[in-house]
TrEMBL record:
InterPro entries: TM_pro_TauE-like, TSUP
Family designation: Belongs to the 4-toluene sulfonate uptake permease (TSUP) (TC 2.A.102) family.
Protein name per its UniProtKB record: Probable membrane transporter protein
PANTHER family found in the cross-reference section: MEMBRANE TRANSPORTER PROTEIN YDHB-RELATED (PTHR30269:SF23), TRANSMEMBRANE PROTEIN YFCA (PTHR30269)
Transmembrane segments: 46-67, 161-181, 201-218, 225-246, 252-273
Originating organism: Pedobacter cryoconitis
Topology in membrane: Multi-pass membrane protein
GO cellular component: a single term: plasma membrane
Top-level lineage group: Bacteria
Localisation: Cell membrane
């Protein structure tokens, strides 16, 4: 395969990864890493390094549009970043010393969990009363809908913070945005409306990935020849997805995407157990 062919296929794959990640809130890494490792046979640590850069690009491309629309809860995102950033640095350090086949197995298991999370029942309704801590930290907010502005209150702030720490560790270890865990923390634990939790997750992904990427950069696991096409493709896909999210029903897209991700995850787990990485 020539360098030009490699770059063009990688650009297309990165674009689709950014588009799917933006629409589902899972981040582009869930597509980029399998594409690089299974199709191009790139070492998984270099794939993770590129995926972290992709996550930063995804967050930058989609988060700006969501913030402009007034959907993202910036105060909540910055508060939870304390947990995810600390976890991301720890996860990135662990990744350096973890065998690549174990990383592949953990990656596949996380993908299956992420696919399952996209199919769960979403909490669209807003709580009328939040926890004392949500008022103390001023995390309650509102977001616009076609029917007007909806106010919402939050609960279980401590539980959500703990889940976010785990999300950060997985982000640093596996190179993915851990969007499923972040949305789980906000949607299920803290009862943030799903549209707000998805957009706030996108807002947070970039900061979490940046913390991990520093460790990978110091270890030499970020290859510009791989990362640069990934950045361009993912950023374009994320920008497209942020525009489409406001106009289309992504229900069936999430179903198809979940089945595809599950198939990829099983392949990653199989190869991991057979030491093919």
């Amino acid at each position: 395969m020539t360098i030009l062919t490699f770059t063009l296929i990688l650009l297309l794959g990165a674009y689709l990864a950014g588009l799917a990640g933006s629409l589902t809130g899972l981040g582009g890494g869930v597509v980029i890493i399998p594409l690089l490792t299974l199709f191009f046979h790139v070492d998984i640590r270099y794939a993770i390094g590129a995926a972290l850069i992709a996550s930063i690009a995804t967050s930058s491309g989609s988060a700006s549009a969501y913030v402009k629309e007034g959907i993202t809860n910036i105060r909540l995102g910055m508060f939870l970043e304390i947990a995810t950033t600390a976890g991301a640095v720890l996860g990135a350090i662990l990744a350096i010393y973890t065998p690549v086949n174990i990383v592949a197995i953990l990656f596949g298991a996380t993908l299956i969990f992420s696919a399952a999370m996209t199919m769960r029942k979403k909490h669209e309704g807003a709580l009328a009363e939040g926890s004392q801590l949500s008022y103390l930290l001023k995390l309650n907010s509102s977001y616009p809908t076609k029917d007007g502005i909806i106010d919402y209150k939050l609960k279980n702030i401590g539980g959500g913070f703990s889940i976010m720490t785990l999300a950060g560790i997985l982000s640093g270890l596996l190179g993915i945005g851990s969007g499923a865990l972040k949305v789980l923390a906000m949607d299920s634990a803290m009862r943030v409306p799903f549209r707000v939790s998805t957009t706030t997750s996108n807002f947070m992904v970039g900061v979490t990935a940046a913390a991990s990427a520093v460790v990978y950069l110091q270890r030499g696991y970020i290859d510009p020849g791989i990362a640069f096409p990934v950045i361009i493709g993912v950023l374009a896909g994320a920008f497209t997805g942020s525009k489409l999210l406001m106009k289309i029903d992504v229900k069936w897209l999430k179903v198809i995407f979940s089945f595809a991700i599950t198939a990829i995850a099983l392949n990653m787990i199989y190869n991991g157990f057979n030491h093919k990485f």
